[in-house]
Write a structure and sequence with these properties.
Oligomer: single chain
Mean pLDDT: 97
Number of strands: 11
Strand content: over 45%
Amino acid sequence: QVQLVESGGGPVQAGGSLRLSCEASKLTFNLYSMGWFRQAPGKEREFVSSISRSGGSTYYVDSVKGRFTISRDNAKNTVYLQMSSLKPEDTAVYYCVASSRAVVTTSTSINYWGQGTQVTVSS
């Protein structure tokens, strides 16, 4: 059974940084685009960032461009999300996702979801 296990979330003050990690198991990792979605309280789940199978292409929602960086290590079956200059509006549960499609920016293309990790940014 495929598992995506996120880690690295927690509380942080505005302006601070966090790095989320997501380790995949029982998944042919290099055949999947990987990404991150988030869901804030009372809001719909939204796309944050994704990375192609090789890591050569990356995508970001406008609100995080210049502040977040996605990367992957195919040898470790792990995808990362480096988050800097965090804002209170970044507070959400962050979900790691895997997609068999070449590009993932919508939830309709997701094959697997992680259980989520909470990020709380205080002002």
